[in-house]
Amino acid sequence: MKSSIGALQDLIHLDMDAIQAYGQAIKACEHENVAQKLGEFRSDHERHVRDLSEELRKLGENPDVRTDVKGFFIEKFTAITSRGTRSALTAMQGNEKLTNAKYAAAEELQDLPGSAKQIIHRNHQDEARHLEWIRNVTDQRIWQQPQPSAG
Prior knowledge:
The chain is mainly α.
């Protein structure tokens, strides 16, 4: 059970890191529709933190809801590399690949309660959706398309 507590806590840190990285990417976006979608993804990560934290509380643990050293570097890397829509998407694609890999590994853990497995599975589905959307708009080279006029 100790390893499952640690795994849930690691996922909280991962999602906290993602929230910070999305904030940097949103600031860098020149395309409002992309920034809006990234904002939705950031909200998914915020829900992940809430759900995982609640699960830890049910298990008698206090969730540690903060970014860690790795998160500091992920946020700074995203800020440095995000100079417009294209670079923001490139940075977030790398971050989402990492997040997907961590959630996939967590789904393989055997000593998790069923309720935790459900949360991890649902969150992993969100992560796969995020990565697929980012890949699709990157393949479409959305940064080369004109933005809809505000009107």
